[in-house]
Give the backbone structure.
Amino acid sequence: MEASVDKAAGRLWWIPLSAGIAWVFVALVILQFDQASVNTVGVIIGIMFLVTGFQQLLLASLFGPVRWLLLIFGVLFLIAGVISLISPENTFAALADILGFLFLLVGVFWIIQAFTERGLNPLWWLGLIAGILMVILGFWTSGQFFIHKAYMLLVFAGIWALIQGVTSIVRAFGIRALRDGL
């Protein structure tokens, strides 16, 4: 039974690869802004939250042991995405205020995800490193003033998307390698 589930998951290795490529593209778009409008930033962040939410729900359908955790984070990311798209101006200001806390939450989630994938993914440590980096960024960002946070929001959103993209691409090839080994 477990081998058939592993083979089925292995056939879907291209999904995290596609998501990873999309995340890298989003990171490149965000990091190209020099004088981005507040509305554009709010909409991009809302889309990032929605994509992350759907990605977590998809992962929840594939991985049984941590399904409940992935479902909770998926729903939370979807709610944040909808709110962000409804009011992008307020999203920008609110995210600048709570940016450090959000990065801390994302980092903790990535650390938990890395440890839960340790038996399945030989490159689990990459997610652990990404999570630790996000926790460090979260603490560092919390100490900044609002004006600096607003300017740094673009950079950190780009870094978040880039880390998510690289991690998803590596995870995809790890899943593919597992599939080929079955």
